[in-house]
């Protein structure tokens, strides 16, 4: 008989706000709530402009989804004004999961990360997808245009403290692991699809990504 799995015992589920607050008392530090605002504050703007990477969270009929977004710092997202962010959609695999999700539900969230910085910046808002020619030209990079730009109407902005980054050692070089210690992309695809030759996929992957970066 297998050992009892404690997560199967639902008697201890925190399934109400009262139960949650019994474990997590209300914030005592005023700054915990006061750091939130409904626009891109001038002191939050540099964090967005310095970030080369963010995670985009959206919602689909099948549930929640997250997608990575990356570009050189200053090109990832443009702060059009205190209430508007512009996120170009660079070349990908054409699944367009996030864009389809925005059509279903415009609510979204962004988590901005800056290498070497412990704090993350969280943005929540509403998105719409634009293919306005002048807007696409605005985000030309290496001679390539994005196919669309996600226009984000900002609703909430606040920073996340550095505890999670510090606990994870995310920016600590000693925490880095070799890519070869994990299953290769080709091995994963071959296991899930009979149409993929994993070894051939891996052999061509770096060159293909370099050719199709933008």
Can you give a write-up of this model?
This protein is 28% helix and 27% strand. The chain contains eight helices and seven strands; from the N terminus they run H-H-H-E-E-E-E-H-E-E-H-E-H-H-H. Strands 2-1-5-6-7-4-3 form a seven-stranded antiparallel beta sheet. Residues 44-161 form the Pyridoxamine 5'-phosphate oxidase N-terminal domain.
CATH superfamily of the largest domain: Electron Transport, Fmn-binding Protein, Chain A
Write down how many β-strands occur, each being a DSSP E stretch of 2 or more residues.
7
Number of structurally distinct domains: 2
Query: What count of helical segments does DSSP give?
Result: 8
The CATH topology annotation of the largest domain reads as Pnp Oxidase, Chain A
Give the CA-CA distance, first to last residue.
54 Å
Q: Give, in order, the helices and strands.
A: HHHEEEEHEEHEHHH
- What is the CATH architecture descriptor of the largest domain? Roll
Q: Going across the major beta sheet, what is the strand order?
A: 2-1-5-6-7-4-3
Major beta sheet summary: 7 strands, antiparallel
Estimate percent helicity: 25-40%
- As residue ranges, the low-confidence spans are none
In CATH's first tier, which class of the largest domain applies?
A: Mainly Beta
Helix vs. strand class: alpha+beta
Strand content: 25-35%
Shape designation: globular
Mean pLDDT across the residues is: 95
Radius of gyration over all CA atoms, rounded: 21 Å
């Amino acid at each position: 008989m297998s050992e009892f799995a404690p997560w199967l015992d639902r008697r201890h589920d925190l399934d109400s706000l009262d139960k949650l607050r019994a474990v997590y008392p209300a914030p005592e530090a005023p700054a915990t709530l006061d750091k939130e605002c409904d626009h891109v504050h001038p002191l939050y703007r540099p964090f967005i402009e310095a970030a080369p990477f963010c995670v985009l969270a959206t919602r689909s009929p099948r549930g929640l989804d997250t997608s990575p977004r990356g570009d050189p710092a200053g090109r990832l997202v443009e702060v059009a004004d205190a209430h508007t962010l512009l996120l170009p959609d660079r070349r990908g695999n054409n699944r367009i999961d996030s864009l389809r999700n925005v059509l279903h539900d415009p609510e979204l969230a962004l988590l901005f990360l800056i290498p070497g910085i412990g704090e993350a910046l969280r943005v929540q808002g509403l998105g719409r997808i634009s293919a306005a020619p002048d807007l696409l030209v605005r985000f030309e990079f290496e001679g390539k245009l994005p196919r669309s730009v996600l226009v984000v109407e900002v609703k909430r902005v606040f920073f996340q403290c550095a505890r999670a980054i510090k606990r994870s050692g995310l920016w600590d070089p000693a925490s880095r692991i070799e890519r070869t210690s994990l299953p290769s992309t080709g091995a994963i695809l071959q296991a899930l699809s009979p149409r993929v030759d994993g070894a051939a996929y891996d052999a061509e992957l770096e060159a293909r990504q370099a050719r199709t970066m933008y």
